[in-house]
Design a protein that fits this description.
The chain is an alpha+beta fold. It has nine helices and 16 strands. It has a single domain, classed as Jelly Rolls. The strands form four sheets. The chain has an eight-stranded mixed beta sheet with strand order 1-2-10-7-12-5-4-3.
C-alpha cells in the first residue's frame, strides 16, 4: 500500500540527533523519494492554530459572490484570485481535461533582486483582498515559516544524497516561491463533475519541494506510485505533506521521482464537502542551471535546463482560456 511508501519523518531527531540518527533519517527520506516522491513531516514547529486561522479568513473571502472577487482576478502565475476554470493541471502532463474544480488565492516572491527583467517577471508586489484583512498578518507569518522549513528540507535532501548539506540551498539565496490557498467547494458551487474532471487533475509539481497543509476528505489527495497505482494519500493531522517537484527530480537524475498526485472531485456521497489546502511551492534562485547529478547518485542524464524558463513553460501549459491552454 502507498502508506508504506510515504513514511512519517520526525524532524526533531534530525535537528538534535547524532550522526547515526541523522543518517537513518536521511536514508528513510532517500527510500521514500525513490518510491513515491512524498513524505509526511512532523516536528516542523508550525502551530496548527495558524493554518486554521488562515482557513477561516480565506473561507470568508471565497464564499463571497463572484462579482466581489472579480476585481482581483489574475491569470495563472499572477498574484490574486484564480477563479473557476482558470487551471487544468493535467495539461502539464500533456493530457487534456476539463478545468480543475477549485478557486485559489495566489501569492509569490516579491522582494526585488535589483535585476529589472527578473523582478518584472518573478518578484512583483503581492495583492491582498480588502474583504479579508486578517489574511495579511497570518499569511506573512506562515510564509516565513515555510521559507525556513523549505531550506531545512533541502539540507536534509542533500544529506540523503550524500552531498554537502548546502548543495541545494546555495541556490536559494533569493529564491522564487508560490503560495496558494486552494478552495475546493462542494457540488452546489461547482456543479456535477464532467467526465475526467477533478478538483486538481493528475500532475507533478514543477519546483524543488512543495509543503502542503491539507484537510482530510473523501474528495481529497491521491498519490500515484508504480506499485499501487492511485491510492488515497496517508493522513496525519500533526504532519505536513511534502513532495518533490520536477526540478528536483531532474537535479537528482531521476533517482527521485516527482510526486504525481491529484485531488478527487466532490464525492457523490458527500457532495457538499468543502476543503481548503495551503500549498507552498518552493523553487530556487532565478535562472539557476539545473544539471542532473552524475552516477552513481543519478540514474538518467537530462539536458541542463534554466530553472525559470522551465517553470514558465509549465505555468503556461496549465493556464486555461475558453477551455484551451494558452500562454497565461
Amino acid at each position: 500500500m502507498v502508506t508504506s511508501q510515504v513514511p512519517v519523518i520526525d524532524l526533531g531527531p534530525w535537528r538534535s540527533g547524532g550522526p547515526d540518527v541523522r543518517a537513518r533519517t536521511a536514508a528513510r527520506v532517500d527510500e521514500a523519494l525513490r518510491a513515491a516522491g512524498f513524505l509526511l513531516v512532523t516536528g516542523h514547529g508550525v502551530d496548527p492554530a495558524l493554518p486554521a486561522r488562515i482557513r477561516e479568513a480565506a473561507r470568508g473571502f471565497f464564499r463571497l459572490p463572484a462579482p466581489v472577487k472579480a476585481p482581483y482576478a489574475v491569470a495563472v502565475g499572477g498574484r490574486g484570485w484564480l477563479g473557476p476554470g482558470a487551471e487544468a493541471n493535467s495539461y502539464a502532463e500533456g493530457t487534456a481535461s476539463p478545468p480543475d474544480l477549485k478557486e485559489s488565492w495566489s501569492w509569490a516572491a516579491e522582494d526585488p533582486t535589483g535585476v529589472p527583467g527578473v523582478d518584472a517577471e518573478w518578484f512583483r508586489p503581492n495583492a491582498w483582498p480588502a474583504e479579508a484583512p486578517s489574511l495579511r498578518p497570518l499569511v506573512t507569518e506562515y510564509l516565513g515559516l515555510m521559507r525556513a522549513l523549505s531550506d531545512e528540507l533541502l539540507e536534509l535532501l542533500a544529506t540523503a544524497l550524500g552531498l554537502e548539506e548546502d548543495h541545494f540551498t546555495r541556490h536559494t539565496s533569493h529564491p522564487t516561491w508560490g503560495f496558494n490557498l486552494n478552495w475546493y467547494p462542494g457540488a452546489e458551487v461547482v456543479g456535477r463533475p464532467q467526465p475526467g474532471q477533478f478538483r486538481i487533475g493528475a500532475h507533478t509539481d514543477f519546483g524543488t519541494v512543495t509543503i502542503l497543509d491539507r484537510q482530510q476528505g473523501a474528495g481529497g489527495l491521491q498519490i500515484h506510485t508504480d506499485a499501487d497505482g492511485w491510492q488515497d494519500a496517508p493522513y496525519d493531522p500533526a504532519a505536513l505533506t511534502v513532495n518533490i517537484g520536477d526540478l528536483m527530480a531532474r537535479w537528482t537524475g531521476d533517482r527521485w521521482r516527482a510526486g504525481r498526485h491529484r485531488v478527487l472531485p466532490p464525492p457523490a456521497d458527500a457532495p457538499a464537502e468543502e476543503l481548503i489546502s495551503l500549498v507552498y511551492f518552493y523553487e530556487c534562485d532565478a535562472h539557476t542551471r539545473v544539471e542532473s547529478l552524475p552516477a552513481p547518485v543519478g540514474r538518467v542524464v537530462h539536458d541542463p535546463v534554466d530553472s525559470h524558463t522551465y517553470l514558465r513553460e509549465k505555468l503556461r501549459a496549465i493556464s486555461v482560456t475558453e477551455g484551451t491552454t494558452t500562454s497565461g
